[in-house]
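Worked example 3 (structure in, sequence out).
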């Protein structure tokens, strides 16, 4: 065997070179100008990527390299995070950046029913090469479908004409709604309850008892009792943290936006009271990127609150999502707040035990804390006095589709779909007969009109293979097909699957192919559903087959 001689000086030379791309000095200067003196902590990675995307309209490879060096992260990590989120356009050296303006057109359930596909085609033809037209999932404005978002400006009841008008007049920023200001909120008795808590007039135990007695259940979808969650988290070792979920990505849901655009301080006060009751000194609010108007409102109103504080405040951080539905799942949201890809964690441990930055975390949907002030001031009985058919409390239904008055309707828990349509939604639109409905967004399944009298609430729809989730109700008529809507939902799940588990990643893609066939292979779809429901890590993969199973069960005529 011949001996191999390794020359040491050559090895040394190799070691001296940094791995991967080297930092471009011009890109470094540009990154320094964007980041200024802001913290370089790794959890701010997504915030800093937004700065680059906002400024340059895309994120180039040289900016990724410079940002990684500046934040002392590996280039791989920055690249992985940047490419995970739909709202970041990562452009490698040999690629062409997108045009400076993007028009996003929602193609989810209600917008598809309102003609989104035709709108996409018309805009692609009409707007020309200087504008990118991008089909996207629900942007949380289903009551005014179809929706196009020009830059950050949402156009309700979008047409080729009004979108063209916004593009040509450069109307590309979100308008702010007329909401209850800080002064007006305080003048109406706002923040008195928080002051009572902070001054010792109330005890945390009293507050937790009131919330337990109210029976309020988490309004993000899972319906875990709010009071019980406060008790569990408050018994965990400190420091404890809080994370508020305003990701609101479930197609059909827009209630959180509605309340934020109306009365943001009612939410902020509820959040502060929850944090106080559970003994929390740091809060993170995670707001979906699509809600640019709400971002302006919250930024301004948190500033007003901090400038003129009604009592001592915890730290409040506002974080911006980046277009990934999965980040609404609580553990994925926590990963995202930590500056990582939004991939759900395996449980146990639950986020109440090991959550944000490894600490016990109180995680709530925005609307769950929005009701705290009313429930405490008016009493738990005020809340439980509402309800139909033995159910208790109020639910904010986001209603869209073929009804006369779509919108957020605050109605008693246990109300039936037929009652909701007749009493709150002004009936069905002319020429449309009630044929079916999604009771809980894309993932909550589909029910036929013949089951329009069942009570809608947590736990009541499970026996029908459905759930109420965030109470996003999409009503459809004889002019729509349940199988088309189920396919729309499955495509959404395929696009939004985070990809970490095979039953969900492969199952959603396979289901889309099978559901697009004229004749459905029911035994194969059934097998696929069982695998997805049984073996997926999180609720996305577990619930994805609900609409397809409902079509087979309740709309079999459409499959003939
Ligand atoms: C795929 C998926 C998406 C979710 N999206 C949201 C969301 O956008 N907003 C939300 O509040 N909860 C969402 N959830 C539910 C959260 O995981 C969690 O249960 C909820 O935020 C807890 O708050 P609550 O107890 O106040 O409802 C989602 C769950 C899953 C599985
Ligand atoms: S079920 Fe889907 S979304 Fe959830 S962790 Fe698995 S791959 Fe990701
Ligand atoms: S905004 Fe289009 S379906 Fe929700």
């Amino acid at each position: 065997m011949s001996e191999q001689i390794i020359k040491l000086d050559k090895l040394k030379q190799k070691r001296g070179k940094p791995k991967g791309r080297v930092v471009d000095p011009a890109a470094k200067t540009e990154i320094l100008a964007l980041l200024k003196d802001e913290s370089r902590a790794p959890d701010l990675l997504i915030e800093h990527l937004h700065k680059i995307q906002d400024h340059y309209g895309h994120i180039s490879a040289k900016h990724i390299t410079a940002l990684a060096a500046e934040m002392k992260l590996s280039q791989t990590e920055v690249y992985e995070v940047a490419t995970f989120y739909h709202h970041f356009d990562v452009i490698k050296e040999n690629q062409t950046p997108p045009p400076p303006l993007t028009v996003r057109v929602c193609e989810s359930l209600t917008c598809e029913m309102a003609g989104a596909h035709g709108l996409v085609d018309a805009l692609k033809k009409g707007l020309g090469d200087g504008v990118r037209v991008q089909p996207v999932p629900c942007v949380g404005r289903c009551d005014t479908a179809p929706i196009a978002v020009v830059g950050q400006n949402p156009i309700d009841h979008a047409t080729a004409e009004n979108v063209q008008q916004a593009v040509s007049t450069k109307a590309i920023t979100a308008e702010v709604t007329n909401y209850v200001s800080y002064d007006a909120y305080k003048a109406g008795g706002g923040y008195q309850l928080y002051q009572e808590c902070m001054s010792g007039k109330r005890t945390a135990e009293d507050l937790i008892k009131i919330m337990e007695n109210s029976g309020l259940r988490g309004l993000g979808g899972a319906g875990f009792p709010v009071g019980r969650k406060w008790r569990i988290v408050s018994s965990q070792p400190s420091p404890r943290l809080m994370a508020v979920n305003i990701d609101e990505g479930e197609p059909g849901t827009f209630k959180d936006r509605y309340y934020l655009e109306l009365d943001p301080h009612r939410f902020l006060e509820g959040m502060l009271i929850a944090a106080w009751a559970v003994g929390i000194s740091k809060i993170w609010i995670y707001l979906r990127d699509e809600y640019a108007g709400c971002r302006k409102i919250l930024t301004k109103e948190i500033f007003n609150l901090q400038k003129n504080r009604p009592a001592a405040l915890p730290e409040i951080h506002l974080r911006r999502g980046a277009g990934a539905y999965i980040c609404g799942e609580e553990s994925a949201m926590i990963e995202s707040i930590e500056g990582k890809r939004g991939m759900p964690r395996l449980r146990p441990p639950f986020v109440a035990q090991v959550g944000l930055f490894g600490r016990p975390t109180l995680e709530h949907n925005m609307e769950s804390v929005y009701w705290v002030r009313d429930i405490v001031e008016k009493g738990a009985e005020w809340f439980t006095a509402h309800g139909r058919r033995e159910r208790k409390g109020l639910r904010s239904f986001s209603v869209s589709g073929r009804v006369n008055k779509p919108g957020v309707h605050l109605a008693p828990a246990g109300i039936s779909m037929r009652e909701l349509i007749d009493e709150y939604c002004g009936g069905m639109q002319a020429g449309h007969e009630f044929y079916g409905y999604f009771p809980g967004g894309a993932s909550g399944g589909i029910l036929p009109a013949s089951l329009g009298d069942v009570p809608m609430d947590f736990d009541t729809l499970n026996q029908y293979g459905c759930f109420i989730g965030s109470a996003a109700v999409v009503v459809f008529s004889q002019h729509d097909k349940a199988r088309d809507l189920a396919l729309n939902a499955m495509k959404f799940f395929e696009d939004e699957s985070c990809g970490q588990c095979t039953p969900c990643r492969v199952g959603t893609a396979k289901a889309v192919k099978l559901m697009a066939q004229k004749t459905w292979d029911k035994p194969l779809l059934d097998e696929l559903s069982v695998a997805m429901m049984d073996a997926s890590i999180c609720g996305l993969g577990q619930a994805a087959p609900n609409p397809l199973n409902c079509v087979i069960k309740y709309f079999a005529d459409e499959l003939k």
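Notes: Residues 326, 344, 497-501, 504-505, 536-538, 540-541 surround iron/sulfur cluster (ligand 2) (CB under 6 Å). The mean pLDDT is 96.
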